[in-house]
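Deviation from plan, reported transparently: adenosine-5'-triphosphate complex.
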Amino acid sequence: MIKLQNISKTFTVNGNDVHAVKNVNLDIQDGEIFGIIGFSGAGKSTLVRCINLLERPSEGSVIVNGQDLMRLDAKALREVRKKIGMIFQHFNLMRSRTVYQNVAFPLKHSKLSKEELDKKILSLLELVDLKEKKDAYPSQLSGGQKQRVAIARALANDPDVLLCDEATSALDPQTTQAILKLLKQVNEKLGITIVLITHEMGVIKDICDRVAVMENGEVKEMGDILEIFAHPQAPITKNFIETASNVNKIYELIEADSEITKLKPGEKMLMLTYANVETKEPLISAISRKFHVDASIIFGNVEVLKHSPLGKLAIILSGDKADIEQAQEYIVACGIEVEVLKEC
Ligand SMILES: Nc1ncnc2c1ncn2[C@@H]1O[C@H](COP(=O)(O)OP(=O)(O)OP(=O)(O)O)[C@@H](O)[C@H]1O
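Because the crystal trials were delayed, the predicted structure below was used instead.
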Protein backbone atom coordinates (compact mmCIF):
# COMPACT_ATOMS: atom_id res chain seq x y z
CA MET A 1 0.00 0.00 0.00
CA ILE A 2 2.84 2.44 0.87
CA LYS A 3 6.24 1.88 -0.67
CA LEU A 4 9.08 4.16 0.26
CA GLN A 5 11.95 3.47 -2.11
CA ASN A 6 15.45 4.79 -1.47
CA ILE A 7 14.13 7.83 0.36
CA SER A 8 16.68 10.44 1.41
CA LYS A 9 16.03 13.92 2.72
CA THR A 10 18.75 16.51 3.17
CA PHE A 11 18.13 19.95 4.67
CA THR A 12 20.62 22.70 4.07
CA VAL A 13 20.99 25.01 7.04
CA ASN A 14 23.40 27.96 6.76
CA GLY A 15 25.30 26.19 4.02
CA ASN A 16 25.56 22.93 6.02
CA ASP A 17 23.81 19.75 4.96
CA VAL A 18 21.70 17.87 7.51
CA HIS A 19 21.02 14.32 6.30
CA ALA A 20 17.73 13.77 8.14
CA VAL A 21 16.77 10.58 6.25
CA LYS A 22 19.25 8.34 4.45
CA ASN A 23 18.24 5.82 1.82
CA VAL A 24 15.21 4.34 3.58
CA ASN A 25 13.18 1.53 2.04
CA LEU A 26 9.86 0.57 3.62
CA ASP A 27 6.93 -1.46 2.43
CA ILE A 28 3.84 -0.85 4.56
CA GLN A 29 1.02 -3.35 4.05
CA ASP A 30 -2.64 -2.55 3.66
CA GLY A 31 -4.45 -2.71 7.03
CA GLU A 32 -1.44 -2.99 9.29
CA ILE A 33 -0.27 -0.79 12.14
CA PHE A 34 3.32 0.04 11.34
CA GLY A 35 5.49 1.67 13.97
CA ILE A 36 8.62 3.75 13.47
CA ILE A 37 10.68 4.17 16.60
CA GLY A 38 13.79 6.23 17.24
CA PHE A 39 15.29 8.74 19.61
CA SER A 40 14.81 12.45 19.10
CA GLY A 41 16.50 13.58 15.89
CA ALA A 42 16.54 10.08 14.34
CA GLY A 43 14.56 11.33 11.34
CA LYS A 44 11.14 9.81 12.14
CA SER A 45 9.06 12.95 11.62
CA THR A 46 10.87 13.79 8.41
CA LEU A 47 10.31 10.26 7.09
CA VAL A 48 6.63 10.14 7.99
CA ARG A 49 6.10 13.60 6.44
CA CYS A 50 7.61 12.22 3.22
CA ILE A 51 4.67 9.81 2.97
CA ASN A 52 2.22 12.63 2.18
CA LEU A 53 4.93 14.89 0.73
CA LEU A 54 4.55 17.46 3.50
CA GLU A 55 8.30 17.05 3.15
CA ARG A 56 9.49 16.34 -0.42
CA PRO A 57 12.25 13.72 -0.40
CA SER A 58 15.56 14.85 -1.91
CA GLU A 59 15.79 11.41 -3.52
CA GLY A 60 13.66 8.29 -3.92
CA SER A 61 10.03 7.54 -4.64
CA VAL A 62 6.86 7.45 -2.57
CA ILE A 63 4.30 5.03 -3.95
CA VAL A 64 0.85 5.06 -2.33
CA ASN A 65 -1.75 2.64 -3.69
CA GLY A 66 0.35 2.20 -6.82
CA GLN A 67 0.67 5.96 -7.50
CA ASP A 68 4.07 7.64 -7.52
CA LEU A 69 3.29 10.81 -5.53
CA MET A 70 6.44 12.61 -6.68
CA ARG A 71 5.06 12.63 -10.23
CA LEU A 72 1.65 14.13 -9.40
CA ASP A 73 0.72 17.74 -10.08
CA ALA A 74 -0.54 19.93 -7.20
CA LYS A 75 -4.23 19.18 -7.85
CA ALA A 76 -3.79 15.40 -8.02
CA LEU A 77 -1.59 15.52 -4.92
CA ARG A 78 -4.32 17.39 -2.99
CA GLU A 79 -6.76 14.58 -3.83
CA VAL A 80 -4.33 11.88 -2.72
CA ARG A 81 -3.59 13.75 0.51
CA LYS A 82 -7.29 13.70 1.42
CA LYS A 83 -6.93 9.94 1.75
CA ILE A 84 -3.95 10.28 4.08
CA GLY A 85 -5.05 11.63 7.47
CA MET A 86 -2.55 12.88 10.00
CA ILE A 87 -2.47 13.58 13.73
CA PHE A 88 0.25 15.31 15.72
CA GLN A 89 1.75 15.45 19.19
CA HIS A 90 0.27 18.87 19.91
CA PHE A 91 -3.08 18.16 18.24
CA ASN A 92 -3.00 21.25 15.92
CA LEU A 93 -6.67 22.15 16.50
CA MET A 94 -8.08 25.54 15.56
CA ARG A 95 -8.55 27.34 18.85
CA SER A 96 -11.28 29.71 17.70
CA ARG A 97 -13.49 26.91 16.41
CA THR A 98 -15.62 24.46 18.32
CA VAL A 99 -15.04 20.72 18.36
CA TYR A 100 -17.79 20.34 15.74
CA GLN A 101 -16.29 23.04 13.52
CA ASN A 102 -12.81 21.54 13.78
CA VAL A 103 -14.08 18.17 12.58
CA ALA A 104 -16.16 19.85 9.86
CA PHE A 105 -13.19 21.83 8.54
CA PRO A 106 -11.71 19.24 6.12
CA LEU A 107 -15.21 18.79 4.65
CA LYS A 108 -15.69 22.42 3.67
CA HIS A 109 -15.53 21.64 -0.07
CA SER A 110 -17.43 18.40 0.26
CA LYS A 111 -20.36 17.68 -2.02
CA LEU A 112 -22.44 16.30 0.85
CA SER A 113 -25.71 18.06 1.74
CA LYS A 114 -25.95 20.00 5.02
CA GLU A 115 -27.86 17.13 6.63
CA GLU A 116 -25.39 14.51 5.39
CA LEU A 117 -22.50 16.60 6.67
CA ASP A 118 -24.14 16.96 10.07
CA LYS A 119 -24.75 13.23 10.25
CA LYS A 120 -21.18 12.47 9.25
CA ILE A 121 -19.64 14.86 11.79
CA LEU A 122 -21.82 13.56 14.60
CA SER A 123 -20.97 9.96 13.73
CA LEU A 124 -17.24 10.83 13.82
CA LEU A 125 -17.71 12.49 17.20
CA GLU A 126 -19.57 9.43 18.37
CA LEU A 127 -16.72 7.18 17.20
CA VAL A 128 -14.25 9.15 19.31
CA ASP A 129 -16.75 9.40 22.16
CA LEU A 130 -17.00 13.19 22.23
CA LYS A 131 -20.52 13.91 21.03
CA GLU A 132 -21.41 15.74 24.21
CA LYS A 133 -18.45 18.12 23.74
CA LYS A 134 -19.41 19.20 20.23
CA ASP A 135 -19.89 22.84 21.16
CA ALA A 136 -16.82 23.11 23.40
CA TYR A 137 -13.66 24.95 22.35
CA PRO A 138 -10.25 23.20 22.37
CA SER A 139 -9.16 25.20 25.44
CA GLN A 140 -12.01 23.55 27.37
CA LEU A 141 -10.75 20.03 26.63
CA SER A 142 -8.14 17.73 28.19
CA GLY A 143 -5.16 16.56 26.12
CA GLY A 144 -6.78 13.18 25.48
CA GLN A 145 -10.02 14.84 24.36
CA LYS A 146 -8.09 17.17 22.04
CA GLN A 147 -6.39 14.18 20.44
CA ARG A 148 -9.80 12.54 19.98
CA VAL A 149 -11.01 15.62 18.12
CA ALA A 150 -7.86 15.51 15.99
CA ILE A 151 -8.52 11.84 15.19
CA ALA A 152 -12.13 12.57 14.22
CA ARG A 153 -10.94 15.45 12.01
CA ALA A 154 -8.29 13.23 10.39
CA LEU A 155 -10.98 10.65 9.57
CA ALA A 156 -13.41 13.14 8.04
CA ASN A 157 -12.35 12.43 4.46
CA ASP A 158 -12.49 8.65 4.92
CA PRO A 159 -8.74 8.17 4.59
CA ASP A 160 -7.04 4.88 3.75
CA VAL A 161 -4.04 5.78 5.89
CA LEU A 162 -3.62 7.58 9.19
CA LEU A 163 -0.18 9.00 9.99
CA CYS A 164 0.40 9.53 13.71
CA ASP A 165 3.35 11.78 14.59
CA GLU A 166 4.09 11.19 18.30
CA ALA A 167 0.33 11.22 18.89
CA THR A 168 0.56 10.13 22.52
CA SER A 169 3.81 11.81 23.57
CA ALA A 170 2.08 14.72 25.29
CA LEU A 171 -0.35 12.47 27.19
CA ASP A 172 -0.20 10.71 30.56
CA PRO A 173 0.07 6.88 30.55
CA GLN A 174 -3.62 6.26 31.15
CA THR A 175 -4.73 8.65 28.41
CA THR A 176 -2.07 7.16 26.12
CA GLN A 177 -3.68 3.74 26.64
CA ALA A 178 -7.13 5.12 25.80
CA ILE A 179 -5.87 6.82 22.61
CA LEU A 180 -3.99 3.68 21.51
CA LYS A 181 -7.16 1.67 22.06
CA LEU A 182 -9.06 4.13 19.89
CA LEU A 183 -6.41 3.91 17.15
CA LYS A 184 -6.63 0.12 17.25
CA GLN A 185 -10.40 0.39 16.93
CA VAL A 186 -10.04 2.76 13.93
CA ASN A 187 -7.64 0.26 12.34
CA GLU A 188 -9.87 -2.76 12.95
CA LYS A 189 -13.33 -1.28 12.42
CA LEU A 190 -12.56 1.02 9.50
CA GLY A 191 -9.69 -0.98 7.99
CA ILE A 192 -7.41 2.07 8.03
CA THR A 193 -3.67 1.49 7.73
CA ILE A 194 -1.81 3.28 10.52
CA VAL A 195 1.77 4.52 10.47
CA LEU A 196 2.79 5.60 13.91
CA ILE A 197 6.00 7.22 15.05
CA THR A 198 7.10 7.23 18.66
CA HIS A 199 10.12 7.18 20.92
CA GLU A 200 8.38 4.77 23.35
CA MET A 201 8.75 1.03 22.86
CA GLY A 202 5.68 0.55 25.06
CA VAL A 203 3.53 2.17 22.36
CA ILE A 204 5.00 -0.14 19.69
CA LYS A 205 4.41 -3.13 21.95
CA ASP A 206 0.80 -2.22 22.59
CA ILE A 207 -0.57 -1.83 19.09
CA CYS A 208 1.90 -2.30 16.25
CA ASP A 209 2.13 -5.27 13.91
CA ARG A 210 5.56 -4.38 12.56
CA VAL A 211 8.20 -1.86 13.47
CA ALA A 212 11.16 -0.07 11.90
CA VAL A 213 13.88 1.17 14.23
CA MET A 214 15.59 4.39 13.11
CA GLU A 215 18.90 5.94 14.12
CA ASN A 216 20.78 8.80 12.47
CA GLY A 217 18.36 8.91 9.54
CA GLU A 218 18.69 5.20 8.75
CA VAL A 219 16.43 2.21 9.36
CA LYS A 220 18.64 -0.10 11.43
CA GLU A 221 16.19 -2.94 11.83
CA MET A 222 12.67 -3.81 10.73
CA GLY A 223 10.27 -6.67 11.28
CA ASP A 224 7.33 -8.26 13.02
CA ILE A 225 7.16 -7.01 16.61
CA LEU A 226 7.17 -10.49 18.11
CA GLU A 227 10.40 -11.31 16.26
CA ILE A 228 11.97 -7.93 17.05
CA PHE A 229 11.15 -8.23 20.76
CA ALA A 230 12.29 -11.86 20.94
CA HIS A 231 15.47 -11.46 18.86
CA PRO A 232 16.56 -7.86 18.57
CA GLN A 233 19.71 -7.56 16.45
CA ALA A 234 20.79 -3.93 16.27
CA PRO A 235 22.21 -2.34 19.44
CA ILE A 236 19.68 0.50 19.16
CA THR A 237 16.80 -2.02 19.13
CA LYS A 238 18.19 -3.79 22.19
CA ASN A 239 18.44 -0.44 23.86
CA PHE A 240 14.77 0.34 23.21
CA ILE A 241 13.63 -3.08 24.38
CA GLU A 242 15.50 -2.64 27.64
CA THR A 243 13.50 0.51 28.26
CA ALA A 244 10.25 -1.43 27.84
CA SER A 245 11.15 -4.38 30.06
CA ASN A 246 13.22 -4.95 33.17
CA VAL A 247 14.42 -8.39 32.20
CA ASN A 248 17.92 -7.29 31.30
CA LYS A 249 18.41 -6.31 34.90
CA ILE A 250 19.44 -9.92 35.45
CA TYR A 251 22.69 -9.26 33.55
CA GLU A 252 23.48 -6.34 35.87
CA LEU A 253 22.73 -8.50 38.90
CA ILE A 254 25.05 -11.26 37.64
CA GLU A 255 27.75 -8.68 36.94
CA ALA A 256 27.37 -7.29 40.44
CA ASP A 257 27.45 -10.85 41.87
CA SER A 258 24.15 -10.17 43.62
CA GLU A 259 23.00 -12.62 46.30
CA ILE A 260 20.08 -13.93 44.17
CA THR A 261 22.39 -14.87 41.32
CA LYS A 262 24.90 -16.83 43.44
CA LEU A 263 25.02 -20.53 42.57
CA LYS A 264 25.85 -23.59 44.60
CA PRO A 265 28.18 -26.21 43.09
CA GLY A 266 26.47 -28.13 40.28
CA GLU A 267 23.80 -25.48 39.69
CA LYS A 268 23.17 -23.80 36.36
CA MET A 269 21.39 -20.54 35.61
CA LEU A 270 19.50 -20.34 32.33
CA MET A 271 17.58 -17.64 30.51
CA LEU A 272 14.61 -19.12 28.69
CA THR A 273 13.02 -17.15 25.85
CA TYR A 274 9.79 -18.33 24.36
CA ALA A 275 7.77 -16.67 21.64
CA ASN A 276 4.73 -18.18 20.01
CA VAL A 277 5.45 -21.60 21.57
CA GLU A 278 2.64 -24.04 20.89
CA THR A 279 3.13 -26.28 23.89
CA LYS A 280 1.01 -25.55 26.91
CA GLU A 281 2.81 -28.17 29.00
CA PRO A 282 3.72 -26.93 32.46
CA LEU A 283 7.44 -26.79 31.76
CA ILE A 284 8.85 -26.23 35.21
CA SER A 285 6.91 -29.08 36.82
CA ALA A 286 7.64 -31.30 33.79
CA ILE A 287 11.41 -30.95 34.13
CA SER A 288 11.23 -31.55 37.87
CA ARG A 289 9.16 -34.68 37.33
CA LYS A 290 10.95 -36.10 34.30
CA PHE A 291 14.56 -35.33 35.22
CA HIS A 292 14.49 -34.92 39.01
CA VAL A 293 15.95 -31.43 38.87
CA ASP A 294 14.70 -28.48 40.88
CA ALA A 295 13.99 -25.29 38.99
CA SER A 296 13.67 -22.01 40.79
CA ILE A 297 12.53 -18.93 38.97
CA ILE A 298 14.54 -15.89 39.89
CA PHE A 299 13.41 -13.38 37.31
CA GLY A 300 10.68 -13.28 34.73
CA ASN A 301 8.79 -11.17 32.28
CA VAL A 302 5.88 -12.30 30.16
CA GLU A 303 4.22 -10.03 27.63
CA VAL A 304 1.38 -10.65 25.24
CA LEU A 305 2.24 -9.18 21.85
CA LYS A 306 -0.34 -9.48 19.09
CA HIS A 307 -2.17 -12.15 21.16
CA SER A 308 0.99 -14.26 21.49
CA PRO A 309 2.95 -14.64 24.70
CA LEU A 310 6.58 -13.60 24.70
CA GLY A 311 8.31 -14.73 27.84
CA LYS A 312 11.74 -14.41 29.33
CA LEU A 313 12.48 -16.41 32.41
CA ALA A 314 15.71 -16.72 34.36
CA ILE A 315 15.84 -20.00 36.27
CA ILE A 316 18.35 -21.89 38.37
CA LEU A 317 18.47 -25.65 37.87
CA SER A 318 19.90 -27.81 40.62
CA GLY A 319 20.40 -31.56 40.64
CA ASP A 320 22.62 -34.18 39.12
CA LYS A 321 24.83 -32.79 36.29
CA ALA A 322 23.60 -35.33 33.71
CA ASP A 323 19.97 -34.70 34.69
CA ILE A 324 20.45 -30.96 34.29
CA GLU A 325 21.90 -31.50 30.80
CA GLN A 326 18.90 -33.66 29.86
CA ALA A 327 16.47 -31.11 31.28
CA GLN A 328 18.16 -28.39 29.21
CA GLU A 329 17.89 -30.50 26.05
CA TYR A 330 14.23 -31.12 26.82
CA ILE A 331 13.55 -27.39 27.17
CA VAL A 332 15.21 -26.74 23.79
CA ALA A 333 13.14 -29.56 22.25
CA CYS A 334 10.00 -27.75 23.48
CA GLY A 335 10.92 -24.87 21.14
CA ILE A 336 12.28 -22.63 23.87
CA GLU A 337 15.54 -20.77 23.43
CA VAL A 338 18.07 -21.36 26.15
CA GLU A 339 20.99 -19.14 27.09
CA VAL A 340 23.33 -20.29 29.82
CA LEU A 341 23.77 -17.29 32.07
CA LYS A 342 26.04 -18.85 34.65
CA GLU A 343 27.16 -22.27 35.90
CA CYS A 344 29.02 -23.46 38.90
N1 LIG B 1 12.99 21.78 8.36
C1 LIG B 1 14.19 21.39 8.79
N2 LIG B 1 15.30 22.13 8.51
C2 LIG B 1 16.51 21.72 8.91
N3 LIG B 1 16.76 20.60 9.60
C3 LIG B 1 15.71 19.84 9.92
C4 LIG B 1 14.36 20.19 9.53
N4 LIG B 1 13.52 19.24 9.99
C5 LIG B 1 14.29 18.33 10.64
N5 LIG B 1 15.59 18.67 10.59
C6 LIG B 1 16.73 17.93 11.16
O1 LIG B 1 16.64 16.61 10.68
C7 LIG B 1 16.98 15.67 11.71
C8 LIG B 1 15.84 14.70 11.93
O2 LIG B 1 14.74 15.42 12.50
P1 LIG B 1 13.32 14.77 12.76
O3 LIG B 1 12.42 15.82 13.34
O4 LIG B 1 12.86 14.09 11.52
O5 LIG B 1 13.68 13.67 13.85
P2 LIG B 1 12.70 12.89 14.83
O6 LIG B 1 13.23 11.51 14.95
O7 LIG B 1 11.30 13.03 14.39
O8 LIG B 1 12.95 13.67 16.19
P3 LIG B 1 11.85 14.28 17.21
O9 LIG B 1 11.21 13.09 17.86
O10 LIG B 1 12.68 15.10 18.14
O11 LIG B 1 10.93 15.08 16.35
C9 LIG B 1 17.35 16.51 12.93
O12 LIG B 1 18.72 16.68 12.95
C10 LIG B 1 16.65 17.83 12.67
O13 LIG B 1 17.33 18.88 13.29
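The chain has a mean pLDDT of 92. We consider this an acceptable substitute for the interim report.
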